[in-house]
Design goal:
- By secondary structure, the protein is α/β, with parallel strands linked by helices.
- The strands form four sheets. Strands 4-3-5-12-6 form a five-stranded mixed sheet, covered by helices on one side. The protein has a three-stranded antiparallel sheet with strand order 10-7-11. A two-stranded antiparallel ribbon has the order 1-2.
- Helix 1 packs across helix 2 and helix 1 crosses helix 4.
Length: about 300
């Protein structure tokens, strides 16, 4: 009988297409991955994956026998991940750790209100994880994710949250030096801060480039760095409305930008976790927090 760990390794290589990518997922070295794949193939008496190119990690495709085995293994992987999601929660009351994942600004919004959130969650510990990569809820990379697009993948349950409205901000020092920032001349006459293209061409990036007729002069990989540059007077930037209430050095220069408003964000939980007491409690309180601050997130005139 092949070991569960080796079958899981085979599924990871098939999904990722290389030893290096699968090794990163499983936190194993490439030599270990190669040895264990070879041992599995010897135990199964068949070649399961064929190497198609060189390089340290190689590229791998399924053989006919591998394609026959993979659906069986994938069902085992799904069952194993469901057991792993459930494991910490047997006999659980509403206590323990809940991991929340979202983009940098959404996590900042939650972190700035963590004291009031924690007051409603006795016995709960919170981990905040900020990234533009979507956390994989099936693998318990997070218990709760907040996303600005409705998820389509997996066995997920979701509820809607108020979406951020966006405006143009500048620091008071920058506006004092560049009074055109107060007028429509800002788009051609001022320096701009925005995203680079490492996370794809986002909606806000596309809007800004179209509005100013060029890419922003200062480009950052995440919103936290954009905000840092904005506050220190490096230029103008598009930010959520609520930032202005928390950064006294900033001036709001426009009304909410209609083209950047979406109807909702989504609070997402894996179906297997929705009724875990601690996850359900945090999800409920987190949703209530966003709705409590709806007027801050979407001030009058937004949308």
């Amino acid at each position: 009988m092949p070991s569960w760990d080796d079958l899981r390794l085979f599924a990871a290589i098939a999904a990722e297409g290389s030893l290096s990518a699968a090794g990163r997922r499983l936190k194993l070295s490439q030599p270990t991955m190669g040895r264990r794949l070879q041992a599995l193939e010897e135990r199964m008496g068949a070649k399961l994956l064929e190497r198609t190119s060189g390089g340290p990690g190689g590229n791998y495709v399924l053989t006919s026998k591998g394609a026959e085995l993979l659906p069986l293994v994938e069902r085992m992987v799904d069952a194993g991940e469901a057991i792993e999601r459930a494991r910490p929660d047997f006999g659980e009351d509403a206590t323990g750790t809940v991991r929340i994942a979202s983009g940098h600004l959404t996590i900042r919004f939650i972190a700035r209100r963590l004291a009031e959130l924690m007051d409603e969650l006795p016995g709960i510990e919170i981990e905040l994880f900020s990234s533009y990569s979507l956390a994989n809820l099936s693998r318990r990379e997070a218990d709760i994710a907040i996303r600005n697009r409705r998820p389509e993948e997996g066995r997920l349950v979701m509820r809607s949250l108020p979406q951020f409205s966006y405006v143009v901000f500048g620091s008071k020092s920058y506006v004092a030096r560049h009074p055109e920032a107060m007028t429509e001349a800002r788009y051609q006459g001022c320096r701009w801060i925005g995203f680079d293209d490492t996370r794809g061409r986002s909606e806000s990036f596309e809007w800004l480039c179209a509005k100013i007729g060029r890419v922003p002069e200062i480009r950052c990989s995440n919103a936290s760095n954009i905000l840092n540059a904005l506050v220190t007077g490096a230029g103008l930037a598009v930010m959520p409305c609520w930032i202005g209430a928390e950064e006294p050095m900033l001036m709001q220069l426009t009304a909410p930008i209609e083209n950047l408003d979406r109807d909702v964000m989504w609070l997402v939980v894996h179906e297997d976790m929705r009724n875990r007491p601690r996850v359900r409690l945090v999800a409920d309180r987190l949703a209530a927090l966003f709705h409590r601050y709806r007027d801050v997130l979407q001030p009058e005139g937004a949308g």
